[in-house]
Design a protein that fits this description.
By secondary structure, the chain is an alpha+beta fold. Helix content is 16%, strand content 20%. The protein binds iron/sulfur cluster.
Length: 276
Amino acid sequence: MTTLETNAETELESTTLELSTLEHGSADPICAAAVDLARAAAIAEAGDSAVGEHLGVIPEGETVATHLFDCTMAGYVGWQWQVSTTRAHGTQRVTVSEVSPAPTTSALLAPEWVPWTERIKPGDLSSGTVVPTADDDPRLQPGWSGADDLAAELDPGPLQPVCWEPGLGRKRVPSPLGRTEAAIRWHRGEAGPNSAMARSAPADCASCGWMLTIGGPLGQMFGVCSNALSPSDGHVVAFDHGCGGHSDAPPVGGGVSVVDVVMDEVSNANLEYEAE
Ligand code: SF4
């Protein structure tokens, strides 16, 4: 911020702009006339080559007016210099209170800032990448320590059986929110019932002999495929997922067709066999 002061009487004498030509509306006429003072302040801030033509005056208050200048700095297309001028009541002495660049609606602006923790998306994690989990991440909750109220374990209810995942040996375990988000993500993804593979499958994983069951609440809905020929081998699959490797998939087309054996008991053809 730059503050310049000048004697308003001198300013008014030297100004080359007539008040009637300024787009100042009801702006204070003395502040509005201080174009050269405002320009000098902008040049002092950014240099002579960065300040273009005077674009107008914005009335800010009874004795405050802001001058606008085109910003000619490289890379600042659509920006303007805003120079606020003011004076005390009863005096014609104008001072500059602030100089700042400001974007217009056509300005070239940087994209909105995205916190680093929100930039990493699924698929960005590669070998050597470390993504810390926040202490208060709602997708995780403290593991069971034995000191908690055991009432919930004694009566866990049908949907969230806490005793299935006590979390012994782990500092934190997935919370209901973390489990729910994972279940929705998996179910909507390639391991769910709506993938192209699942829609063309002869039957679902729930009835497949290749599916290994898993513990915990998600075991009510997901398992792990163990069919080496399946693209899901070693991956979590939803019960209503499926693929062509289903253990009970019927043979396609009945196998290789074989003609009936024909025995010639009529002709006298000599057949020669060569022992191998
Ligand atoms: S082989 Fe196919 S149907 Fe069977 S568990 Fe694996 S993905 Fe599911």
